[in-house]
Amino acid sequence: MANNDIEHYKSKVTPYVFACWILAAFGGLMFGYDIGISGGVTAMDDFLIKFFPNVHERKMHVSENNYCKYDDQMLQLFTSSLYIAALIASFFASRACTLLGRRPTILMASTFFIGGACLCGAAEAKWMLIVGRILFGIGVGFGNEAVPLFLTEIAPVQHRGAVNILFQLFVTIGIFIANLINYATSMIHPNGWRISLGLAAVPGCVLLVGSLIITETPSSLIERGKEDEGKKALKKIRGVDEVDAEFRQIVAACEQGRQVKKPFKKLFKRSGIPALFVANIIQVFQQLTGINAIMFYAPVLFQTLGFKSDASLLSSVITGLVNVGATFVSIYLVDKVGRRKLLLQASVQMFISQVAIGAILLTHLSATGTLHKGLAALVVILVCTFVMSFAWSWGPMGWLIPSEIFPIETRTAGFAFAVSTNMIFTFIIAQAFLSMMCHMRAYIFFFFSAWILVMGLFVVFLLPETKGIPIELIEERVWKQHPVWKKFYDDEEGKRDDMA
What we know:
It is found in: Membrane. Pfam families: Sugar_tr. This protein has a single domain (11-499), classed as Growth Hormone, Chain: A (Up-down Bundle), CATH 1.20.1250. The chain contains 24 helices and no strands. The protein has helices at residues 3-7, 15-42, 45-51, 53-60, 73-99, 102-121, 126-154, 160-185, 192-198, 201-213, 218-223, 227-238, 244-258, 263-267, 273-288, 291-304, 309-337, 339-364, 373-391, 394-404, 411-440, 443-462, 474-477, 491-499. The longest helix has 30 residues, at 411-440. 56% of the residues are buried.
């Protein structure tokens, strides 16, 4: 397709398409609410007394090692079990996205999430908590697979980055709301934790209603042979009738995609490696920034630093607010300056913040003492600068870039691998962080900062820029032009792949 055709893709933002973006993005709010709610609940005395009395007993001993008093594998399993469930569910979600469409997959995500919220809120035994978390996980796996794809496919090319980042924006809003709720329910005894967990059903219900209102994406409809419906949907989301150029490009991409009968197999062919590697390594790096360690356990972390229970929850609210505000920076800049510049700037800022936190804790926090109030406040500020830079870079880019770099024939399969990689590394960090903090102490922050340095080098040498490129032309105009990745393509293999 000629470049001037791409430049003349016509669209306008109608109230309906804006509503589609917002309603679908509630899948991110579900995910964020769960991230935020877990750490606050696990710091509540009523919750610990009921389900983890040994942890509560250790917590009450003032002489207990600051870094180890929350080190309990079952307590960590409460948080991390969700992510193993999401890991497995993401592959079923990939098939659902391909066979049924993005919209029904989003509907299923909301249903599982509501079920998990009800079971966790009513839990009387550990097994009910864990089963509820597994249902949460299935909902997250389906939602995190379908929602970023939906937003990427429904967005006009010139706004694709900003629209996709709505998912991450709502993740941050979910974390912030969860922190506010935890702060309020920590004062409600003995069942405040039930309110925190049960209210997860609210974003699930909004997503459920939203899934009945939003349209299916044109790419999904055309991919499944519904070309007339696909063209109608394209006119609806673009707000104009002149969609022939874009429609032809989507049809051509889908026709090429239909030649590939085994998308998972094609992912592992030589020409599939660049997108597969980049999509998955970004997920690994997103978790190795240490962000989820901070977000999961922010209240626990701040208590370790010497804050009282209420003060630690309030500090988490502050970091949550910073997280939301900084995500708007990404929405504004991502389609102006591009993906790579945001990632590189943030890598420098995150590295400095993590090293500074580690240095303060290493030199001023003993195993049984507390930080001076001034230093503790400085750590909160450094956590905020870290969260801020993550929120406009590795947070949203971790979902945006993998959703836009695969060709149509491997898009759902490739994104399923990306989601599952995110979930397994989220699980590892969630399951290991408290134990790592116990054994590594302040050095854990140096561990994460070393990975941030590696991430910056990855962006410099291996990450291509995708700003302003139609997703149907990513392979031709991104991968085949990159100085490293173009070596994975040759005409003969491309022909063999297309005939597969």
